[in-house]
Write a structure and sequence with these properties.
It is built from 3 helices and 11 strands, in the order H-E-E-E-E-E-E-E-E-E-E-E-H-H. It is an alpha+beta fold. A hairpin with a 2-residue loop joins strand 6 and strand 7.
């Protein structure tokens, strides 16, 4: 009798494990990934080798009201979390225009259009173009694009970064508080340090 119950219990556990999918999000990254950009892929860790991806950004500078197009060059991929950020911040900046096919908006940093993620596991390619709009106020001096890119449940890279793009001198979305608080020499020193660290 005990053997029969043990077999029934084991069989139920196997059936339950088969019916309940492992933790992964085939219809998009969860909002909990906005800050650390880590997908919840049970049993899988980020790749430690250099990502085979790089960004193609349509402009070296940004101006509020002017869209920036971004493409992710490299092998086709299935999963994605894409944000714009300033250095040292986990806050998603600006907003994304209508996402391309097989992707959707993800609310990050309280912004319904703060990030883009996959909407399914269909392949996305280097032709897939994402369009970002800078914020209307509080722009930092530099912005970079960050992504988590997944080829499969097991193979993904985090913190894939673009080169920085600079705030256009004509931009009217300046980081007024930062400019008032920091002297110009301190800002220039900070930017120089950032360039030395990341390039």
């Amino acid at each position: 009798m005990a053997h029969w119950r043990l077999s029934l219990l084991f069989g139920s556990a196997v059936l339950w494990a088969t019916l309940i999918p492992c933790s992964a999000f085939p219809t998009g990254a969860p909002a909990s990934a906005c800050e650390n950009m880590l997908p919840v892929h049970t049993g899988a860790q980020p790749q430690q080798i250099r990502a085979p991806y790089e960004f193609l950004v349509s402009s070296p500078s940004f101006l509020n009201g002017q869209p920036i197009n971004i493409q992710i060059l490299g092998p086709a991929y299935r999963g994605l979390l894409l944000e714009a950020r300033s250095f040292g911040s986990n806050t998603a900046l600006g907003s994304w225009k209508t996402p391309p096919n097989n992707t959707k908006f993800l609310q990050c940093s309280g912004n319904p259009h703060g990030a883009v993620t996959h909407s399914n596991t269909n392949l996305k390619t280097r032709q897939t173009t994402y369009t970002w709009l800078p914020p209307n106020s509080g722009c930092p001096q530099v912005v970079m694009f960050m992504a988590t890119v997944a080829q499969s449940h097991e193979i993904y890279w985090i913190n894939v970064r673009s080169k920085v793009i600079w705030k256009n001198p004509k931009a009217t979305c300046g980081a007024e508080m930062l400019t008032r608080t920091w002297p110009t020499a301190a800002l220039l020193s900070l930017l120089l340090l950032i360039l030395l660290v990341y390039f």
